[in-house]
Every structure is written in C-alpha cells, then in structure tokens.
Amino acid sequence: MTVRQLNAGNWLNPPAIYTQSDEELTLETGSQTDFWRDTLYGFRRDNGHAFLTGVDGDFTAYLTFKGDFQALYDQAGLMLRQDEAHWIKAGIEVTDGMLNMSVVVTRQTSDWSTFGLPTSEQSHRLRITRKGAAVIVQFRNVRSRWQLLRVANFPEGPAQLGPMACSPQRSQLRVTFTEFHITPPVEQALHDETIA
C-alpha cells in the first residue's frame, strides 16, 4: 500500500511562506536556516524547515522536488529524524559552485558526503529505504536508474520523515516538492539495475 504524505504531517520550524495541497508543497526558506551538529564548524543548528510524518519499521520513501538553488549551501530533499541528535538529510546542496547530491548522517555529530551532478536537471528524485538499522539513500541518475549515494547505520525505532529545505547563507530559497510517498521496502538488490 502506498501512503501519500504531502498534506499530512507536522512542521519542524515552519517557514513563513508556504503553500500546500495533496499533490504539492512549495516553500520559501527563512534566513540562515540549517541542520548541522558540531563537526568541523563547531556549531549546532536545528532551524531548517521540515514537514514530517511518523514512520516505524521498514519502508521505502520517494520524493521529487525542484528549486532555485544558487547560493552556497542551498539545500533541499528528505529528512529522516528521531531527535535533534539523530537524523539523516539527503538531497541537493550547492557547494564548490555546482549542484551536488548530498547526504548528512548525524548520530550525535554530523558527517557529510557529496556527489557532483554532471547536469543541472530541473527536477530531482530521491529514494530512501530503511531495513532494520540500515538506511539506503539513492537518487535517480541521468540514465534513469537508482544510483547509490549512501548506506548508513541509523537507530531502529519510531522516527519522522519528510521534505526538508534550508538556506544557511540567505533566505527565500524557493523549493517545490511533489510525489512524496511511502511504500513497503523495495526488495531490489542494492546494485540491481534491471528495474528502472
């Protein structure tokens, strides 16, 4: 069974400007919003925007989104969160003058990995699968296949999941989210490309 969630959930740090329906969520970020915890920079920020719904057990979640990504660290995508010290955010982030697929895994402290995109497509698609204590992050690549970004350890148990967006260096990053849905976990092997 598929659960669609773009009009069902709760805001963590609601943006001042947003519109919402069953099919679409559009928002503009507040000034200097971010999710980060300690590593390298020595600060904690937990003021990014996320629209979260409860999840437990194993699942696969899909999200399609687009935004006017321009400034350093502009970002948007999916967040899986237990509390302020245990969360994952994955999606687009601007660094080094280009768009990157980015994953930050926070278990008390944050770590960060990026993958530079060869093109600047208007829409981006993510897939997060949780199986026990493993979280698999994938994105739809230029060959229309699910490309692996990260396999991470994450605490089992209840959590929250949903679209997120931040703009650490500015305000008014505009992002539109569509096609957010949660299904039973995909059984496709990690590197199996036979299923488009």
TrEMBL record:
Alphabetical keyword list: Plasmid
Segments crossing the lipid bilayer: none
A Pfam short name: DUF1349
Signal peptide coordinates: none
Presence of keyword DNA-binding: no
Protein name: DUF1349 domain-containing protein
Organism: Peteryoungia desertarenae
Record lineage: Bacteria, Pseudomonadati, Pseudomonadota, Alphaproteobacteria, Hyphomicrobiales
